[in-house]
């Protein structure tokens, strides 16, 4: 089956987009999954904390997921493309839906739109950071860290007293009193911030070390060694098995979506994301849903999958509601025009006085 028009357009072929597609396949809705081949966890060879799939390779997870979707038939189509334009469009019958355009000029339309294209990290301008991401610099210690936590490791920054809980988690991950954890503050902490200084002292009392010299670069350790060297401003190098750091993120294609659709964007200390409303992930644009990393600060495969289920349910609910309302309007119009309908058992009983 080849078509350019679908019930639902899904932008993104990661866990959120594939989860959306699977649910839509179950209820026999047509959808097109469009992927640009970019995945935020490229470079990671194992997923962690994903029930039933712990330690799976993310690429194997996507392949198996697609295989399961394709087993349902051809209602769900897949397309590799880079989308450069997204907007509202008037479809057949005057339906107000959506249209997307790819870099090569091809376009597709859909009654509903699910934004599941994920997010990207905004790296600090420090040499070697990008080269060590994500296999030596970890943004989530639930997802990564345990396998190397018996070795010395570190974290970047100590921005607030609340960060005490984070470094305490790191100490626990490293084996409590056996942990060798260094917090690289990349500069002196403000002396006049009493709560922050108290939190630092509490961390030090638990054995957490602090390094205030500024970071000049990161250098990957040469095989067979693992980890990286944190290169400080005076030429000193500190070897760690990994660094925990969470750079801010932005939704992939955020400017395109704002310009083309007018979707509302939310911001917090961890970056920006498309504003998502519970329970279905609806956005500020009617008929448009967001699922996964593009619509949340907490980035995790299991949560992205759950969001995909919600987005699919929301799109399906809207489609079915519209179709039901259209049928009801047709019935009411027929009544008004006085056109006799096929009698039901109830109307026959009424005519016969029963």
Automatic annotation (TrEMBL):
<dbReference type="Pfam" id="PF07992">
    <property type="entry name" value="Pyr_redox_2"/>
</dbReference>
<dbReference type="InterPro" id="IPR050097">
    <property type="entry name" value="Ferredoxin-NADP_redctase_2"/>
</dbReference>
<dbReference type="InterPro" id="IPR036188">
    <property type="entry name" value="FAD/NAD-bd_sf"/>
</dbReference>
<dbReference type="GO" id="GO:0016491">
    <property type="term" value="F:oxidoreductase activity"/>
</dbReference>
<keyword id="KW-0285">Flavoprotein</keyword>
<comment type="similarity">
    <text>Belongs to the class-II pyridine nucleotide-disulfide oxidoreductase family.</text>
</comment>
<dbReference type="GO" id="GO:0097237">
    <property type="term" value="P:cellular response to toxic substance"/>
</dbReference>
<keyword id="KW-0560">Oxidoreductase</keyword>
<feature type="domain" description="FAD/NAD(P)-binding">
    <location>
        <begin position="6"/>
        <end position="308"/>
    </location>
</feature>
<dbReference type="InterPro" id="IPR023753">
    <property type="entry name" value="FAD/NAD-binding_dom"/>
</dbReference>
<protein>
    <recommendedName>
        <fullName>FAD/NAD(P)-binding domain-containing protein</fullName>
    </recommendedName>
</protein>
């Amino acid at each position: 089956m080849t078509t350019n028009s679908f019930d639902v357009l899904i932008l993104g072929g990661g866990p959120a987009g594939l989860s959306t597609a699977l649910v839509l396949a179950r209820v026999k809705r047509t959808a097109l999954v469009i992927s640009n081949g970019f995945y935020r966890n490229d470079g990671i060879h194992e997923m962690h904390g994903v029930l039933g799939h712990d330690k799976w390779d993310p690429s194997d997870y996507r392949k198996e997921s697609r295989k399961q979707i394709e087993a349902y038939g051809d209602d769900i189509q897949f397309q590799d493309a880079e989308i450069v334009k997204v907007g509202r469009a008037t479809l057949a019958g005057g339906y107000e839906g959506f249209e997307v355009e790819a870099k090569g000029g091809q376009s597709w339309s859909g009654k509903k739109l699910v934004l599941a294209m994920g997010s990207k990290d905004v790296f600090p301008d420090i040499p070697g950071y990008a080269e060590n991401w994500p296999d030596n610099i970890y943004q989530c210690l639930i997802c990564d860290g345990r396998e190397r936590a018996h070795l010395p490791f570190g974290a970047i920054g100590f921005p607030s007293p609340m960060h005490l809980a984070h470094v305490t988690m790191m100490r626990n991950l490293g084996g409590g009193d056996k942990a060798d954890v260094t917090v690289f503050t990349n500069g002196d902490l403000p002396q006049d911030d009493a709560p922050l200084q108290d939190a630092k002292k509490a961390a030090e009392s638990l054995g957490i070390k602090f390094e205030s010299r500024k970071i000049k670069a990161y250098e990957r350790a040469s095989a067979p060694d693992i980890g990286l060297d944190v290169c400080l401003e005076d030429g000193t190098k500190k070897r760690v098995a990994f660094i925990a750091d969470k750079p801010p993120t932005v939704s992939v294609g955020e400017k395109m979506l704002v310009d083309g659709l007018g979707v509302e964007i939310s911001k917090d200390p961890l970056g920006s994301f498309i504003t998502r409303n519970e329970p279905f992930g609806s956005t500020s644009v009617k008929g448009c849903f967001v699922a996964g990393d593009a619509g949340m600060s907490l980035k995790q495969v299991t949560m992205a999958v759950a969001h995909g289920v919600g987005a699919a349910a929301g799109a399906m609910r809207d489609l079915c509601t519209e179709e039901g309302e259209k049928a009801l309007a047709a019935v009411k119009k027929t009544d008004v025009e006085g056109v006799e309908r096929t009698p039901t058992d109830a109307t026959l009983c009424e005519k016969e006085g029963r």
